[in-house]
Amino acid sequence: MTLMQKFLGAAAALALTGGAALAEPALIYDLGGKFDKSFNEAAFNGAELFAAEGGSYRDIELQSEAQREQALRRFAEAGFNPVITTGFSIAPIMGEVALDYPDTKFVNIDGWLPEVPPNVQLIGFQEHQGSYLVGMMAAMASKTGTVGFIGGMDIPLIRHFGCGYAQGAKAVNPDIKIIANMTGTTPTAWNDPVKGSELTKAQIAQGADVVYAAAGGTGVGVLQTAADEGILSIGVDSNQNYLHPGKVLTSMLKRVDVAVYNSMKAGENLETGGFTVLGLAEEGVGYALDDNNAPLVSDEMKMAVDKAREMIIAGDLEVTAYYANDSCPAHQF
Amino acid sequence: MDLVQLIQVADSTLRLSTPLLLACLAGLFSERAGIFDIGLEGKMLAAAFFSAGIAALTGSVWIGLLAGIGASLVMSAIHGLASITFRGNQLISGVAINFLASGITVLVAQAWFRQGGRTPSLEGPERFGSINLPFAEALSGVPLIGPIYSEILSGHTLLVYVALLLVPASWWVLYRTRFGLRLRAVGEAPEAVDTAGVSVIGLRFAAVAICGVLCGLAGAYLATGQQAGFVKEMTAGRGFIALAALIFAKWRPWYALGACLLFGLLQAVAIQFQNIDIGGFIIPVQFMDALPYILTVVILAGFVGKAIPPRAGGEPYVKER
Q1: Taking each helix axis from N to C terminus, what angle separates B253-273 and A193-205, rounded to the nearest 10 degrees?
Q2: With a CB-CB cutoff of 8 Å, which residues 149-168 of chain A face chain B?
Q3: Residue range of the domain that includes B233
Q4: Which residue of chain B has the CA closest to A199?
Q5: DSSP structural state of residue A134
Q6: Per-residue confidence (pLDDT) for residue B303, from 0 to 100
Q7: Greatest mean pLDDT range, A38-42, A247-251, B313-317
Q8: Quick one: A105 and A210 in the same domain?
Q9: Among the ranges given (A290-294, B216-220, B286-290), the one the predictor scored with the smallest mean pLDDT
Q10: In a domain, A284, yes or no
């Protein structure tokens, strides 16, 4: 009987390793949650595209900060490859965990590490370029000469969005007034639509007639209030034009879905050990145009924005990144 | 600061105070009867989801409101069962309620709507519209009174006025009725109430039920009055601020109105002005956000009068044999 048990145990172990050798990709969402209609949902959409083409993957939604390392190690030990993570907060932990699993490849979107381990790839986006374009559109659509920006948690990344937006708005109308507010300083700022709604009302009272929300779930409240009060809003990350057709001017697209899809598609052959930066040229960022917002975007607006887009790609127009020296030339946060 | 901004801040204060006030009064009834309730947050969250979810499914905000109150009552019943019937620790039961609500709302929302733990946006009759008080238009031209009446007081959703009316109603129930006297007594000296032949358990369950109804109103206001739909964790700590307001108000209804308006004002000012510049000295917005908690600690430390909780609060009643 003991011999039998040993055989059974060995067979079970074989079956386990056999399963792991398939090397499926794994995806870890940030605290905003898989269905935030924005950043993480874009990652999910990319993964679903991969699944639709016959691939398969595993994913997990984190509930707390403490789960980050646990989830990374679990996936790495179970043989998933590559392990893709979204959000900047997980990057430092990922950098450490990656050293323990040299055969597993890790990808992070939005993160930054001082030294990138050879099996880690960091993917970033030129959010300021996309925000510049929607900033131009906001300034052209505004009748009051005042545009608003509502950020989620007050972190450099969100200021980076706001800074590009402010530069774009100023480029169209140098006298434009920009009101920028942050929802909060803790992660609850990503999921507080009530406060987003109050901030929008406050900005409307100060004259804003276009507001740009870069605030995750909080943005749902911003877009709702803007639609209720009859002003225009701008969505972020995913295409949010459909949420309030005819009331959302456009959405600043951040093609997290493309980044996730490409990483999954590359699988074990993924190139690692550096940074990938996706900007306008790589179609990593852009503005959304579809049936829902077509009546709002005039030909003149479209021409101006497309021209700026080409100039940025060609290098004739430089949008200053907030990170460059932690300050913004167009707006004081 | 000009008049327009003042009006805007006052208007925003009323909107932001309402959920705090409803939750604070809910806590008041429960704690006055000797049942501590840190599950206000969870009850509000459950009510917010079920009011928005049912409103979206049935197309009627009123059925949604009833469902929200119902969900909150179920949470209250669990709290009552654990802490009154089975004499469990009230704090632990409250924490459990918060976790339960946080998980179950997203789970059910995902099962019903497949939108990742949120409800669809509510439109038209699925949400509370704003109510213009009578003569608001006519009075708007009158200086001083006009803007105050037509801009600040008028144009809110029904639940804002309900919350304000509930303050005198709570005062009357607690201090002018036999039920109120017994309810307060059961939180101070349950043995005396028992000796008088009144059921301690019955009174405490009644208090917890009232707490459930009020939390239901608070949650429904968040999801169907102030917002148009449910988003996960949308209460964002308001239940805890309401608890702070309750301590700040020293467990009294009128003081609760003052405390909630003050906390609402602090939030409104923080939203309106972000960083406040007073003669070169800048008050950061983070400080404004933390101020309700700081004030509560100051009160608890006994600097501004004493906040004495109900004497039998937190202790399950065991009949002597």
Answers
A1: 60
A2: none
A3: 3-300
A4: B271
A5: H
A6: 67
A7: A247-251
A8: no
A9: B286-290
A10: no
Start-to-end Cα distance in chain A: 73
CB contact under 8 A, A198 and B271: yes
Give the mutation candidate from A29, A34, A35, A45 for the B interface (greatest B CB count, under 10 A): A35
Q: Which residue has the tokens 């911003």?
A: A222
Sheet hosting strand A232-237, strand order edge to edge: A177-184, A146-153, A210-214, A232-237, A248-254, A285-287
| CA contacts within 13 A on the Cβ side of B129 | 7
Cβ contact, residue pair A221, B236, below 8 Å: no
The answer to whether position B274 is within a domain reads yes
Residues from chain B that touch A244, judged by Cβ atoms under 8 A, are 121
Tell whether B102 lies on the interface with A, counting CB pairs under 8 A: no
For residue B20, the domain's CATH number is 1.10.3470
Gap from B56 CA to chain A (nearest CA, Å): 16
Q: What is the pLDDT of residue A1?
A: 52
Domain that holds residue A82: 15-125+257-278
Give the tens place of pLDDT for each residue, A226-236: 999 999 999 99
Residues A110 and A143 reside in one and the same domain: no
Look up the CATH number of the domain holding residue A68: 3.40.50.2300
Q: CA A141 → CA A45, A184, A208, A326, B100, distances in Å?
A: 30, 28, 11, 29, 45
Average pLDDT, chain B: 88
**A184 & A302 share domain:** yes
Checking if the pLDDT of A113 tops 80, the result is yes
pLDDT confidence band for A21 (50 / 70 / 90): very low
The letter for the amino acid at B164 is: L
Please check whether residue B16 touches A, CB under 8 A. yes
Task: For residue A57, tell me if it sits in a domain.
Answer: yes
B277: closest CA of chain A, how far (Å): 14
Q: Is A309 on the interface with B (CB under 8 A)?
A: no
B121 contacts on A by Cβ (under 8 Å): 224, 243-244
CB contact under 8 A, A35 and B116: yes
Q: CB within 8 A of B128, min separation 6: which ones?
A: B61, B157, B158, B159, B221, B224, B225
Residue B242 has pLDDT above 70, yes or no: yes
Asked if A194 and B268 come within 8 Å (Cβ–Cβ), the reply is no
CA distances from B11 to B15, B226, B273 (A): 7, 13, 15
Q: Which one of A184, A194, A198 has the shortest CB-CB distance to B289? A: A184
Domain count for chain A = 2
Q: Is residue A286 part of a domain?
A: no
B228 at interface of A, judged by CB pairs closer than 8 A: yes
Answer yes or no: is B313 within a domain. Answer: no
Quote the number of domains for chain B.
Answer: 1
pLDDT tens-digit map of A47-64: 999 999 988 999 998 878
Q: What is the pLDDT of residue B274?
A: 66
Write out chain B residues lying below 8 Å of A181, CB-based.
Answer: 271, 274
E strand or H helix that includes residue B230: none
pTM listed for this prediction = 0.81
Note whether A123 contacts B: Cβ–Cβ < 8 A.
Answer: no
The answer as to whether B305 is a domain residue is no
CA angle B175, B97, B58 (to 5 degrees): 90
